[in-house]
Design a protein that fits this description.
Structural class: alpha/beta
Distance between the termini: 36 Å
Radius of gyration: 22 Å
CATH superfamily of one domain: Alpha/Beta hydrolase fold, catalytic domain
InterPro entries: AB_hydrolase_fold, Peptidase_S10
Largest sheet: 12 strands, mixed
Oligomer: single chain
Order of helices and strands: HEEEEHEEEEEHEHEHHHHHHHEHEHEEEH
Number of helices: 14
CATH topology of one domain: Rossmann fold
CATH architecture of one domain: 3-Layer(aba) Sandwich
Pfam families: Peptidase_S10
Keywords: Signal
Family: Belongs to the peptidase S10 family.
Strand content: 15-25%
């Protein structure tokens, strides 16, 4: 019996394994080594390969970084970025990749790059993928090719899960933010294909996801309780809303005037807050304008910026870091170094808002049932959340985990890095299926951006089967 029925099964298993075979040969033919990059001094201290693979009318761009540890023994990850429509470079520079931007003394021109000492590629090989089509440097060969959905996005990524040299390596699916909803479905598709005898067999061991989007309604409804626990709204207002709305703050009946009034008052308290991390300032969105001189462009798109960055007397916004990546990734010399096909994209975006609003179909409301199906297999799962994130509140993740009715393996307890509490964790299990959940203390949405040291320690321990 296939784990995923109907159209999803066809896209997820048979197509994947057939396309995987073409990927192996395509990878060998089109993948090109990158030994130097503009902005980085000297030869890159890691093996980087970039290229495209064709899927129907899509040309998906990827960056492959080989493990700097023991590549023949270390696990292989495919890393799916959130959004939907955010670029692989977002994960490559801001989350788990081997390079970071020099933001401490930027004064114009092409940004400098530094090695990231907390890169996950120190202990694993990672494929960073521009998916769905329209993300980053990926493109379609027809206008219709840009229209995609949750399930089609999932199908497009399957065949990138392998390489001839890594067939026997342990394989993991990693994701961030919105791609969390796709991750368990992709895992089930791989299991389904393996059980059907499709080749090559994928040595899937587990999945991991940061700030894992899983259930839209549950996440939206958890925002107000978490805001209260973080002292963003008063107790009296919270209790009033809880009673008037009957603890349901989503899709409120228009006749419930008392609830709507409470929610409006709550919005006045929360709206000025940066919901990705309540500790960060809330800043205006930045749009990439690489054709402008860098300093003038940065100044034009921020109300408060004064250069150089990160001086105590200056105002700071995380969007300034994103702006530097806009400048770097849109530079033609950079694109040539990455072997981006000339003329295929007019402008690179860190996150393609047009894709999110116009060409992407959101057709998976909840992935909880897929996690329930995964409990029948010996899959290892790691879910990690920032405890100051209002986008995917950690309490919503805990709530749907509890609905799986797993057996408690390790109870809620602190975990440590260098003798300090890095967050809190628990582990549940069921017949070999193990689900570890952990918080990152003080982190926001996409915890690796806020706590790289702690996240690397978390990942290194978990991926090598050590307890947190």
């Amino acid at each position: 019996m296939p784990l995923i029925s109907g159209r999803y099964s066809i896209l997820s298993s048979a197509c994947f394994h057939l396309l995987l075979l073409s990927f192996v040969s395509e990878y060998a033919e089109s993948g090109r080594m990158v030994k130097t990059l503009p902005g980085f001094s000297g030869v890159l201290p890691f093996k980087l390969e970039t290229g495209y693979v064709t899927v129907n009318e899509s040309e998906l761009f990827y960056l492959f970084v080989e493990s700097q540890g023991k590549p023949k023994q270390d696990p292989l990850l495919v890393y799916l970025i959130g959004g939907p429509g955010c670029s692989a470079l977002n994960g490559f520079f801001f989350q788990t990749g081997p390079l970071v931007l020099n933001t401490s003394d930027y004064s114009g021109g092409l940004p400098q790059l530094f090695y990231n000492e907390y890169t996950w590629t120190k202990t694993s090989s990672i494929i960073f993928l521009d998916a769905p089509v329209g993300s980053g440097y990926s493109y379609a060969t027809s206008s219709q090719g840009y229209y995609t959905s949750d399930t089609e996005s999932m199908a497009q990524t399957h065949w990138l899960a392998d390489h001839q040299e890594y067939v026997e390596n342990q394989f993991f699916i990693a994701s961030d933010s919105y791609s969390g909803v796709i991750t368990p479905i992709l895992a089930l598709a791989l299991i389904d294909g393996n059980e059907a005898g499709l080749q090559p067999t994928i040595n899937l061991q587990g999945i991991l996801s940061g700030s894992p989007h899983t259930n839209s309604s549950l996440e939206a409804n958890s925002k107000i309780p978490l805001a209260y626990s973080l002292a963003l709204i008063s107790r009296s207002l919270y209790e009033s809303a809880k009673n008037s709305c009957n603890e349901n703050y989503v899709d409120v009946d228009s006749s419930n005037a008392e609830c709507l009034e409470d929610l409006e008052e709550i919005d006045e308290c929360i709206d000025p807050i940066n919901d990705e991390n309540i500790l960060d300032p809330k800043c205006a969105a930045l749009s990439p304008k690489p054709e402008q001189q860098a300093r003038r462009s940065l100044m034009a798109h921020s109300r408060n910026l004064r250069l150089p960055f990160f001086k105590t007397q200056d105002y700071w916004c995380r969007n300034f870091e994103y702006k530097l990546l806009d400048i770097w990734a849109n530079d033609k010399i950079v694109q040539d170094a990455l072997h981006v096909r000339r003329g295929t994209i007019k402008q690179w975006y860190r996150c393609n808002i047009s894709l999110q609003e116009n060409t992407y179909t959101y057709n998976i409301e909840s992935a909880v049932d897929y996690y329930k199906n995964l409990t029948s297999f010996g899959t290892q799962v790691l879910l990690y959340s920032g405890d100051h994130d209002l986008v995917v509140p950690y309490i919503s993740t805990l709530e749907w985990i509890e609905s799986l009715n797993l057996k408690e393996d390790y109870p809620w307890r602190p975990w440590f890095v260098h003798g300090q509490v890095a967050g809190y964790t628990l582990r549940n299990e069921y017949n070999g299926f193990r689900l570890t959940f952990t918080t990152l203390k003080g982190a926001g949405h996409s915890p690796t951006q806020y706590k790289p040291l702690e996240c690397y320690n978390m990942f290194e321990r978990w991926i090598h089967y050590y307890p947190l």
